[in-house]
Amino acid sequence: MSPCDSCHSGCCRAFAIPVTGADIIRIERGLKLGFWDFVCRWADPDGTIARNNAPHFFFEDEPNTPFVICTTHAPSAFHEGSTKCRFLMECTPDEENPIGASRCGIYNHRPSSCHAFPMKLDDSGELTILYQVPKHGREDKNPLYDLCPREWEIEDIDPIEAPQQLSMAHYEINFFNQVAQIWNRNPREWEVFPEFLHIVYNNRVMKQESPKPADDSGTIPFSVA
Ligand code: SF4
Ligand code: SF4
What we know:
- β2 and β3 form a beta hairpin.
- This protein has one domain (about 5-185).
- The radius of gyration is 21 Å and the shape is globular.
- The chain has helices spanning about 10-15, 20-30, 35-40, 110-115, 160-185, 195-200; strands at about 40-45, 55-60, 60-70, 75, 85, 90, 100-105, 120, 130.
- By secondary structure, the chain is α+β, with helices and mostly antiparallel strands.
- It has a 3-stranded antiparallel beta sheet with strand order 1-3-2. The protein has a two-stranded antiparallel sheet with strand order 4-5. A two-stranded antiparallel sheet has the order 6-7.
- Bound molecules: iron/sulfur cluster (SF4) (2 copies).
């Protein structure tokens, strides 16, 4: 059993969850949702959401505010005044579980940052590091935002899947950082961001140009010795 199995999902309540363009398009397709159903921009003037990993985007309407692209939060059904990732499914609290069990409603399509937590690649990009998760996800120490009920152990992590997923997440966040650089050269309004994103990602696959034949005899322009 992983620590998540007995957790009330403090991470899905405490944090804004950054998404990449690839996450957005995968969720749109997999769940038949539109961009505005689940994506928002969170102002991040002190960098605590981006954490030197997710890119900052700037927009025409607030040109001096860095934003991180995240999943939207929704009010908790059981804990007044608090919010949680809009995809978190909450169960009714009971005596055994006063906060209430909960689970990700899009587990197979969840963003790469959710897949990765609490792991990262080491500096060589080849080994998986389990980092120490703090006890509380927010400074106010509300138990709703407590994190992992026990420390993660190496045995909790699949040594084949985890590095593969982290490598993919690393590739996508690098690509999204380049997308941000292009966008930030000429920031436009937030409303046109989804259109921009779809144009960029729809052009990620290109066909190799056909090599020109050396002559017009119709033979294939290479030979097998
Ligand atoms: S997408 Fe799922 S795992 Fe990620 S924060 Fe939301 S509920 Fe939690
Ligand atoms: S806080 Fe830790 S144990 Fe709980 S759902 Fe998040 S990663 Fe899993």
